[in-house]
Amino acid sequence: MLSLQHISKYFQVGGNKNIILNDLSLDIDEGEFISIMGPSGSGKSTLLNIIGMLDEPSDGYHYFEGHAVHQLKEKQRSALYKQYIGFVFQAYHLIDELTVYENIETPLIYQDFKSAERKAMVADMLDRFNIVGKKDLFPAQLSGGQQQLVGIARALIAKPKLLLADEPTGNLNSKQGEEIMELFRKLNKEDGVTIIQVTHSEKNAEYGSRIIDLLDGKIDSSRKL
Amino acid sequence: MIRNYIKIALRNLWRHRGFSFINITGLSIGITACFFIFIYVAFELSYDNFHTKADRIYRLVTDIKTPSETINTSSTSWAFAPNIRADLPEVEAFVRTSGGSFLVRRGDVKFQEENSMFADSTFFKVFDFKLVKGDPRTVLTAPATIVFTESTAKKYFGSADPIGKTVLITGDAVPATVTGVMKDFPGNSQIKADMIISMTSLTQKFNKGIDGQWGNFGATTYLLLKPGTSPKAVEAKMPAFLQNRDGDGMKKSQMFYRLMLEPLKYTYLYSKRGGQEVGSISNVYIFSIVAIFILLIACINFVNLTTARSVERAKEVGIRKVVGAEKSQLAGQFIGESVVLCIIAFLLTLGIAALLLPAFNQLAGKTVSSGIFSNWYYVVILFVTSICIGLLAGLYPALVLSSFKPVMVLKGRFSGSRKGGILRKTLVVAQFSISIALIIGTIVVYNQMSFMQNRDLGFNKEQMLVLNTNSDPAKESLKNAISSIPGVVSTASASSIPGGGNNGAYSEIENKMGDLQIANLDLYFVDYDYVNQFKIKMVAGRSFSREFGTDTAQAMLINEAAVKLFGYSSPKDAIGRRFKQWGREGKIVGVMKDFHFRSLQEVIKPLTMRIELHSLDLITVKVSPKNLNSTLAQIEGKWKQFIPNRPYSFYFLDEFFDRQYRSEQRFGKLFFNFAVLAIFISCLGLLGLASYSTLQRTREIGIRKVLGASVPGIVNLLSFDFLKLILISCIIAMPVGWYFMHQWLKDFAYRIDVQWWVFVLAGVLAVLVAVATISFQAIKAALSNPVKSLRSE
């Protein structure tokens, strides 16, 4: 599905080159559920952002579904991204001014779905996540777990093939975390969504089909479960 | 998508009520101020534009060249127009008008119609004034026929039909027939009157043959040129026309005329020759600039507050980009929000404008607009302007916001860009520079006003009331009767008083070389007591005196300006010199110290005074301040006893004189109001920015407090940044303010110097207001508990 080849990412700070990713190569197949682990500063989030096209590598080649991402223009990349990728964050990142319903609807608006279609899709999603009763509430009125559910619902609404999650359970208690992980597993198994998550928790990592350990911007180990 | 944007916009506005309030209020006030200025300027520019033939109507004006000077006047001789019409085929028609004051009576109803006008029968053909009753072709044809305006007709006839009825005009009770009733003159007409009398009444009845006297000026002449005629071509034919018709006359009187055409549409704003009502194109410019400034200040607020808040919106931008928004879509959203805000401001503006319109009309001194919806296109313009402001002011913040990188704003701390900070500072400096310049302007205008009102005019105008007898034969006996009232200190009669009009007389006066020099001189007819009554000082010779029997016909007083005109180095040298004026000959007996017989905008001109007892229509009465009411009642009693035919009225000289400054006072008031608005809007913006920057520095303040910073220290820290900007603004505003006010003052012959303290005062005012605005926020932040602010991180 995607392939990273000799990806590097560095910043120039003063006279020093601050290397975050160092000549990293990685292939991911459709249907995989990958957990990326590693100590703070090992480049996990940066890697995820590059995969998600939110960030650009300083060097290297990036292929996604047969497109050479490193050669695409901003607009084309955005179109590709819109079509294939959903993002989930540790801090949920819902829009505070919008209700649950509207938050979930937002991606559809940017993909030019008709109003009636949007209604049906959002209703479906609310139903699936059991949050129909909460649809008119604002994010601030929800618990962390519920907010993350909304965040995931929003990430999935446009039916992406790839779900990227940056420490999705980092702000949740263990029970809520487990529920989210179960949901991910179900999505991966039943809906065939490819998932890449960044996590600190060994336990959560084990929900995945492959664990990649990063250290100092390089892949330290890759184990299939 | 649009609905989604609007929803977000409204929710955002509501969530940040404080900011929205500041933003919308500032914008509404700005737009309201602009709107008022706009309708005022539009009104000024609309003068005389409503005539369908306006493009072909010209005012005939004259330059009169005498040996001593050239007089530029809007006045013409009654003889010019009929002869021009006869000689020049390019002229389709002419209308002469001349003002007058008429006693009008119908039964017991009597009024002195001060604002009357003679006009030719072509009046309703050339101009677009509308007759409600009567035939426009014939109403003003016969002598002693009258057209009333609707409101004047109502005074005499109530709801009855006045057509064909007779009223008595002048003290001689001449019967005149009402032949027409017209709509009241529109506010934006330079030509205005309460009643019109046929010109033939003047030329065939009251002043027979006046239209044969080429040198007798006093008519205003309008020419209607045939379509396609160039006014220049007509002007070019004037010298030959004058030479042909009045060449000998001009040579004999040594007064040479030059005739020119002024387009009717431009006379109100551009002509320097005066007229019934005079506008000022420079005031139009000044106010237009002020309007643009105020709008600019309001827009700057808008941009500043929005970009300052961008940090808060950054997260939303990041999220939207992550879920698939493109830059253009986001920019659209933010511009949309600012348009929504502007529409709210527009609605608010409609309310404020409707509410304040009567007050504004009063301030402007005329009915600029009778209702904001009376000209629907004003509202449309207002709406379009609001939308445009929304688009323009929203553009920059939208571009800044929509270009945020999601990775930057979603991860870690994000702080506003440095560049944005500099831009905001520049804009604040621009705002305050404008505000301070306006404050400087206001102070200077007020100084000049009070200077004019308090300056020693060289004569006494206190406790003096003036009665106009309009040449009633009983005026002499009335004056004597009034003199005997106990509360009356003294009386004097004259043809003219300072601040009012006076005759200009063709005069010949002996100059330094001993020749009789021709000049057109201002002339007052007075009685023996006038000089004393007004406490006018004599610098040489003597005043008029009853001891000299010849004073009634052969004596003249001149002022120092006249002494200079005729070349004498000292007033004493002028005494005993010969004069010829309006059929009288004699000697100069005294020289008066110059006094301001016109407004302080004008240099004191040469003035002559003579005794001409039958020409003294005005009775000036010096009254004692004690028992003033009883004195006034007794004066009224005497009037009713001696001149029962005429309605009684009087005015106080000091008020009458100050009336000359009405338009300047109005200008000052308008200017003051708009300056206050400008600084208010600027401060609103400053308040918003200060509270925002304080909010952003909450963490810094917390850390500083933990490290031991004192409250005043923190207040200083927060205020200093802004104060620096205000000081820079002062430095920019001062030369600009000085330059513009220097230009403005040039219009006044007697004026103040712009003093250094004006700038200091303006600067101090601005700093005080700014400090008050900022320190409130700063103190609040400095007093807050650091534990709280640090925990919130």
From TrEMBL, chain A:
Signal peptide: none annotated. Gene3D superfamilies: P-loop containing nucleotide triphosphate hydrolases. GO terms for molecular function: ATP binding; ATP hydrolysis activity; transmembrane transporter activity. Residues 2-225 form the ABC transporter domain. Keywords: ATP-binding, Nucleotide-binding, Translocase, Transport. PROSITE patterns: ABC_TRANSPORTER_1 (PS00211), ABC_TRANSPORTER_2 (PS50893). InterPro entries: AAA+_ATPase (IPR003593), ABC_transporter-like_ATP-bd (IPR003439), ABC_transporter-like_CS (IPR017871), MacB-like_ATP-bd (IPR017911), P-loop_NTPase (IPR027417). GO terms for cellular component: membrane protein complex. Belongs to the ABC transporter superfamily. Macrolide exporter (TC 3.A.1.122) family. This is ABC transporter ATP-binding protein. The lineage of its organism: Bacteria, Pseudomonadati, Bacteroidota, Sphingobacteriia, Sphingobacteriales.
TrEMBL record, chain B:
Residues 289-404, 674-782 form the ABC3 transporter permease C-terminal domain. One of its GO terms (cellular component) is plasma membrane. GO terms for molecular function: transmembrane transporter activity. InterPro entries: ABC3_permease_C, MacB_PCD, Macrolide_Exporter_MacB. Residues 20-239, 433-635 form the MacB-like periplasmic core domain. It is found in: Cell membrane. The chain crosses the membrane at residues 21-43, 284-305, 334-356, 376-401, 422-446, 670-692, 713-736, 756-779. Keywords: Cell membrane, Membrane, Transmembrane, Transmembrane helix. It comes from the Bacteria. It is a multi-pass membrane protein. The keyword Transcription regulation does not apply. This is Putative ABC transport system permease protein. It comes from Mucilaginibacter gossypii.
